[in-house]
């Protein structure tokens, strides 16, 4: 008996980074998993690794038709959908607002915000048919304040919070809960690979040393929180936001005094 036996989970951006950690953990907990993503090679490799109870769905979250195909994959292969994880996300190359072009602004909002909107829209009918449904949107601690050079990313993650709260209100009576996770700095390609057109990785901005837990987060840190929020253990939690950042939001920690 596992926490997600007989449930089907769709994870966007599920082929790598935090997404593949989430996919593996849901699968290990008994779920059928639909790995939504744009990298078919990595998606197929993950399906081969997991074997039974896994499918890859080619899913560009900005494309409404690929959303309906992914939900159909879940329903045809596994008979339904109970959990949607809007994990896919992109960051903008660091630039001041005055140097950010509209195409960059639109691309980041399309993936990070419109992608989640389209996902909720496409998944709701299937989630409603499930006994209990859950949506978890992966935002960021950068959606809790301002960060110079990251206006499109920051704005997209702030807006995701409003989408989460509104969806929670609209869907609560259908037994569908909607929550947000705000990761801090998590060790994935996201922080190690410089954004397109920029010379610096985002990790260069965040040494973990000054903070209460002086290490980078691991995908598994986020995965454990996600599985809790998606599970019936969290049945009274909706419209909520969970920060998982090792204390980054608190500011620098008290340093031990030199002896
Ligand atoms: N790594 C961090 O420090 C950090 C911190 C806060 C929030 N986040 C958020 O966590 C989420 C996962 O990021 P990650 O750290 O695993 O980074 P990552 O770059 O490894 O993963 C992002 C995933 O999104 C996918 N993706 C991009 N555009 C897509 C599209 N149009 N359609 C479908 N998939 C698309 C990519 O293929 C990739 O699999 C993102 O939403 C990111 O904003 C990351």
From TrEMBL:
InterPro entries assigned: NAD(P)-bd_dom_sf, Sc_DH/Rdtase_CS, SDR_fam
Residue spans crossing the bilayer: none
Alphabetical list of Pfam families matching this protein: adh_short_C2
Signal peptide: none
Region spans: Disordered: 1-20
Keywords noted in UniProt: Oxidoreductase
Superkingdom per UniProt: Bacteria
Alphabetical list of PROSITE patterns matching this protein: ADH_SHORT
Protein family membership: Belongs to the short-chain dehydrogenases/reductases (SDR) family.
Protein name in the entry: SDR family oxidoreductase
Lineage: Bacteria, Bacillati, Actinomycetota, Actinomycetes, Micrococcales
């Amino acid at each position: 008996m596992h926490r997600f036996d007989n449930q089907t989970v769709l994870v966007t951006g599920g082929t790598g980074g935090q997404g593949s950690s989430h996919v593996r953990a849901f699968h290990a907990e008994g779920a059928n998993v639909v790995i939504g993503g744009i990298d078919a090679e990595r998606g197929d490799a993950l399906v081969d690794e997991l074997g039974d109870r896994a499918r890859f769905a080619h899913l560009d979250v900005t494309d409404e038709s690929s959303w309906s195909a992914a939900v159909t994959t879940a329903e045809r292969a596994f008979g339904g959908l109970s959990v949607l994880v809007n994990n896919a996300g992109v960051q903008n190359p660091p630039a001041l607002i005055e140097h950010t072009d509209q195409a960059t602004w639109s691309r980041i909002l399309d993936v990070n915000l419109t992608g989640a909107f389209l996902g909720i829209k496409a998944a709701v009918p299937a989630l409603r048919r499930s006994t209990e449904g859950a949506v978890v949107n992966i935002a960021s601690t950068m959606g809790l304040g301002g960060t110079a050079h990251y206006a499109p990313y920051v704005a997209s993650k702030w807006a995701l919070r409003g989408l989460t709260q509104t969806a929670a209100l609209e869907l609560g009576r259908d037994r569908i809960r909607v929550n947000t996770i705000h990761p801090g700095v998590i060790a994935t390609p996201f922080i190690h690979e410089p954004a397109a057109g920029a010379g610096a990785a985002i990790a260069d901005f965040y040494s973990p040393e000054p903070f209460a837990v002086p290490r980078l987060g691991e995908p598994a840190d986020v995965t454990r929180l996600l599985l809790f929020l998606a599970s019936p253990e969290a049945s009274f939690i909706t419209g909520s936001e969970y920060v998982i950042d090792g204390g980054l939001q608190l500011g620098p920690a008290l340093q031990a005094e030199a002896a």
